[in-house]
Automatic annotation (TrEMBL):
Keywords: Membrane, Transmembrane, Transmembrane helix. The chain crosses the membrane at residues 20-40, 60-82, 103-128, 148-168, 177-194, 209-232. This is ABC-2 family transporter. The keyword Membrane applies.
C-alpha cells in the first residue's frame, strides 16, 4: 500500500514533463522541415530588378512567412497525432485520466509552439547569415534583429494551428462520424474561399492590428484546448 498522495496540479505537471520527453521526436521533424525550407527560401520570397542601362540592381526579399506557414502545418499535424490511438496509449504509462491528460497535452503543445517559434526565427537569421557568407551580398534588415511583437504574432499563429489540430483530433476521438462531418463542412467552406463569410473571419482576426490579433488568437486557442477537456471528460482512459 502506498501513502503517496499527489494533488491535481502535481499529476498534470508530472504528465507534462513526461510527455515533453516522450513526444520530443516531433521537434526533430520540425528541424528537418526547416532544412527543407532553407532550400525553398534560398532565393528569397520575392525579387525586384532595377537598372539604367549601365547599372543593374537585383533585390531579394527574405521573410518569416514561409517558415511560419510550414511550421503551422507541422504544429497542426503534431497536435492531431497526439490524440490518435497510438499516442493515447502513452497515457497508460503514467497516472492519468481524460481531464489531466487533455490539460497536459494542451500545455505540451503550448510549450512546443513556443520552442517552434524560437526555431522559426532562428531559421531566418541562420539563412540570412549563410547567404551573406556564401554569396557575399549585403543584407539590409527592414526591422530590428529581433522584434518581440512579431515573435508573439508568430507564436499565436503556430498555437492556433496546434489548437485547431488538437480540436479536430478530439472530435474524431469522440465520434468518427462527428469528425468526418466537421471535415466535410470545413472542406466545403474552403471551396468557397472567396465568399464573404471567410473574408469576414479574416478581417475579424487581422484588420484591427497585431495586439488585438494576439488577444483573439489566444482566446480562440484556449477555447479549442478547453472543449476537448469538456466533451471527453466522461470518456475515461482504457487499456487495450
Amino acid at each position: 500500500m502506498s501513502l503517496t498522495h499527489k494533488t491535481f496540479p502535481q499529476v498534470v505537471l508530472t504528465q507534462v514533463k513526461w510527455k515533453v520527453m516522450a513526444y520530443s521526436q516531433a521537434l526533430i521533424t520540425l528541424l528537418i522541415l526547416q532544412i527543407v525550407m532553407y532550400y525553398f527560401n534560398y532565393s528569397g520570397s520575392g525579387m525586384s530588378t532595377r537598372g539604367n542601362g549601365l547599372l543593374s540592381l537585383q533585390t531579394h526579399f527574405y521573410s518569416l512567412d514561409g517558415f511560419v506557414i510550414s511550421t503551422c502545418l507541422w504544429s497542426f499535424v503534431t497536435a492531431y497525432l497526439i490524440q490518435t490511438k497510438d499516442y493515447r496509449k502513452t497515457n497508460l504509462s503514467i497516472v492519468s485520466n481524460r481531464v489531466t491528460g487533455n490539460i497536459a497535452n494542451a500545455l505540451v503543445l503550448v510549450f512546443y509552439s513556443f520552442i517552434a517559434t524560437i526555431i522559426v526565427h532562428m531559421s531566418l537569421y541562420i539563412l540570412v547569415a549563410f547567404i551573406q557568407l556564401v554569396k557575399g551580398i549585403t543584407m539590409f534588415p527592414d526591422v530590428s534583429l529581433f522584434n518581440f511583437l512579431h515573435f508573439l504574432v508568430s507564436f499565436c499563429l503556430i498555437l492556433l494551428a496546434a489548437s485547431s489540430g488538437y480540436f479536430l483530433s478530439s472530435l474524431f476521438n469522440l465520434s468518427k462520424i462527428l469528425g468526418g462531418l466537421f471535415v466535410i463542412f470545413f472542406g466545403l467552406f474552403l471551396f468557397r474561399v472567396f465568399d464573404e463569410q471567410l473574408l469576414t473571419i479574416m478581417r475579424f482576426y487581422f484588420e484591427a492590428g497585431y495586439l488585438l490579433f494576439i488577444v483573439k488568437a489566444l482566446i480562440t486557442a484556449s477555447l479549442f484546448f478547453t472543449l476537448p477537456v469538456v466533451f471527453l471528460n466522461r470518456k475515461e482512459v482504457v487499456r487495450g
